[in-house]
Amino acid sequence: MRYAPLTQAIQGETVDAWDIHFKATALKEKDSSVIVLSIGDPDFDTPTPVIDAAVAGLKGGDTHYVEIEGRDNLRAEIANQHQQKCGQPVTKDNVILLAGAQNALFSSALCILQPGDEAIVLQPMYVTYEACIQLTGAKLVPVAMDKHNNFRLDKDALAAAITPKTRAIFFATPNNPSGVMLNKDELSYIADLAISHDLWVVSDEVYSRTVFEGEHVSIAGFDKMAERTITLNSLSKSHAMTGWRAGWAIGPETLIKHLSNLSLCMLYGLPGFVQQAAYVALTDSQALMDSEAMRESYRRRRDTLVACFEKHENLACIPPEASMFLLVDVSQTGLNAQQFAEALFEQERIGVLPATAFGQCASDYIRISYVVDDEQLAQACERIDNFMLQFV
Amino acid sequence: MRYAPLTQAIQGETVDAWDIHFKATALKEKDSSVIVLSIGDPDFDTPTPVIDAAVAGLKGGDTHYVEIEGRDNLRAEIANQHQQKCGQPVTKDNVILLAGAQNALFSSALCILQPGDEAIVLQPMYVTYEACIQLTGAKLVPVAMDKHNNFRLDKDALAAAITPKTRAIFFATPNNPSGVMLNKDELSYIADLAISHDLWVVSDEVYSRTVFEGEHVSIAGFDKMAERTITLNSLSKSHAMTGWRAGWAIGPETLIKHLSNLSLCMLYGLPGFVQQAAYVALTDSQALMDSEAMRESYRRRRDTLVACFEKHENLACIPPEASMFLLVDVSQTGLNAQQFAEALFEQERIGVLPATAFGQCASDYIRISYVVDDEQLAQACERIDNFMLQFV
């Protein structure tokens, strides 16, 4: 049977990179000594008040159709917190709940991109950007962050990538996999380009609550950016709620109406009991304290890993400002990232990802997810020390 | 800012029809005597064992990422039940879980249709088909069911609608809003056309467990149809789980792989606790008994309404074989469907839908959803009797 060309556009080329992750998770079922540092799924439980809210919703019969855009109180709370943080004046009418930031990215791309367009994405980038952009018929134009400057913005490269066909700039801040958080100067540069070339900006901020140093800044709050910015966020990372599929987009009211029309035929809203849980996640003091405690754990783990990698002369680690990931340049070992990751798994039973999947500019790097407890992480560091002996 | 043309394709023309529904639900908050017969949301609670399974999943920490296609045990159970019912040999690899049959319809359309294609939909049709098909760039070609024959298949009209551009035939059996269930002869006719013209068939079977008379037949089980049929189903209607967003598509393995690639960038799987609940819904004897009890309630309500409408000479009701809806021809009253629905709401505080939204062929009809308890339904019948006095 014939399939639509779209099915070609969503076939990732980067599946190989996950082989080690799949091998590691499969082996871990038989061998508990395997340490899986290859996925961005928090090891924490969802905060208890959030679970309790979902349970109360389920037991209270909140299992029927709900408003397509999400409930007013939840949308208003998201709008309120966004405005408090970045200053962009928004109401619930600027917010739509969707099934995770992934669904929000997918939906936003469909509403703003069309065949013939070019969409710039700052690289390294999360692996699903490629499919989300290509399925609209638009062309993805990767702009590599500057790997000689710890993967910070390469302003000249960004400016040079803009053509008359450019329609949007997509980025994640903090970035997965680098953990780099764009600063005011960098965002201001992007904003100026977006305004002068009349571009959309899609800012994926799912790690914005997992920040170790400095202040997270949202480009939506910059002058004249409200009308052209789509801010994506979710509870997946901040509240260890990856499986709940609860995220949102914030943007101009017209965009939200289009996204609502799309959700009507794509999704038909999020479960009411999930929305009750989401509201508690964003407002309950215990839930917020739990979220902060997770962040402090990630900070401690990051410090442990950075200290480990800095000991080894032929590894160069980029200390992340945020997120639950870090990149390590392994090229000085004489192995490429895939070889290094395979050897580390074979010899030391540690699963990490070759960062090639996140863009060519990251091909010398492995991505480490610090989503295991302190004890496992200490073990991982010992094994890495041992592994590195062969390269001395 | 410029939006993609897709945003035009998903702007429904049929929103007016829902005005009365929105008015009725708004007034009901202030006036409990309002009777809302305008939505397809069961008034029942989700069966307790299903709730309990979700609660156990939540409390057990089943809140992390899960397999994109859904869990093996759930997919295998769906495959098993489908095979038992219709004879199509399928395994879990022919099944993908998606966020409701709506999401499965949307995703299937994206994977099989492209600009230039024509997709036939049997009309009356549920309102979101238009957007789902048009957003792919394909043209929706409605084929009216025969209203002079209780909205059964018009074979000649279907055959005549096929052109070299036709790529697929979409239908719902049982149908929303007519409650008509396609029989073996009708499905066989459709299958022959699909095979001889090499067409996809998308069979939306969300009301297949809500059948009052006769046997529900799935076209997927017909000879040579497995390779070209996509069967959509969900728990929304059968188990009063509309808000859970739990549905699936069954089809060729290649299609499932494409749908899985799509889900990776669109949705990223269903919550694990929802999947645990779904498994219980499909296998637990109490949950299945509850589902059957719902069906018996719908049957009783249907009988009540049919008896009510048959009393009135200038109303012609099509007794549905299945579903939770029925159509009533109101044209003999001298009012059109919109006027009739408005007057019924203004005078008797009953919300029904003008069926115009489901296709031009249904424009003489109102759709009644029997999703209220026996007492309210008896009241509704009394009020309808009273309302009809003015037309005598």
Automatic annotation (TrEMBL), chains A, B:
- Pfam family name, one: Aminotran_1_2
- The protein's Enzyme Commission number: 2.6.1.-
Enzyme class (EC, first level): transferase
> What SUPFAM superfamilies is this protein classified in?
PLP-dependent transferases
The Swiss-Prot or TrEMBL record lists the needed cofactor(s) as:
pyridoxal 5'-phosphate
Gene Ontology terms describing biological process: amino acid metabolic process
Gene Ontology MF term list? pyridoxal phosphate binding; transaminase activity
Start and end of every Aminotransferase class I/classII large domain? Answer: 33-384
Cross-referenced InterPro entries: Aminotransferase_I/II_large (IPR004839), AspAT/PAT-like (IPR050596), NHTrfase_class1_PyrdxlP-BS (IPR004838), PyrdxlP-dep_Trfase (IPR015424), PyrdxlP-dep_Trfase_major (IPR015421), PyrdxlP-dep_Trfase_small (IPR015422)
Give the record's family classification.
Answer: Belongs to the class-I pyridoxal-phosphate-dependent aminotransferase family.
Could you identify this protein by its name?
Answer: Aminotransferase
Write down the species.
Answer: Alteromonas australica
